[in-house]
Amino acid sequence: MIQTYLDWASKSWDWMTAVGLVDPQYNVFDGTQDSTNCSQVNEVSFSYTHGMLLYGSAALANYTNGSALWTARATGLLRASARFFTPYPNASLVMFEPACEPRGTCDVDQASFKAYLARWMAAAAQLVPDLTDAITTLLQHSALAAAAACSGGARNDTCGQKWYVGGFDGSVGVGQQLSALEVVQGLLINRRSPPGVASSVHISVATASTPVPVPTATPSPLVAVGEVSAGMGYDVPGRWGVGVVFAVVAVFVQGYAEH
Question: pTM of the full predicted structure?
């Protein structure tokens, strides 16, 4: 059963790279259309799809006993995650949603995307020790900024959207609360056991041999990342998104954790 998941995860990755949903620099793009035979890619990037592939690749690297292929993919995805940090020089290593957050155009779903990136980064840090130091540094800086942003409302505990403004920005919702919660509790990950219970699951307990440097982007590619605009919704019928395709890997991960 697990081999079937592994085979389809590999096929899914190969298809995504062939189509261009993942580029050679490990940037992850949002989707494509079957009406054009997937020949045109929407090059908007969201943090949650990037985080999904990072965690899936880390789980596969761990399960395959640190195979060079999946370790390189997990490492590449972490390095490419720099586009989701450091929106401005005075907000170094602070997480943000570049496709919509700086311009205040995030919808309800998009306001929660940082939560998933934070959660999956933390989980990946458990599975690939070489990623642990860099991920911990990113989460620490972001958690401090998120804590400062959670200072609104009548009780001064309501969280805002833009963590890089140095306080509460007035943008509220469940996504803002969830994102702040996940980035803070992600720092507690090493107090819990890694996922997986069966003896056939290869949970890494080694220390990092070659720690990956903290990914940086100077200046942050606010324009290059692209911006969400009218007509660019990610739930259009006939549209194939990274989240849909790599759900195959997410299924593998779920089976991996429960096997």
Answer: 0.82
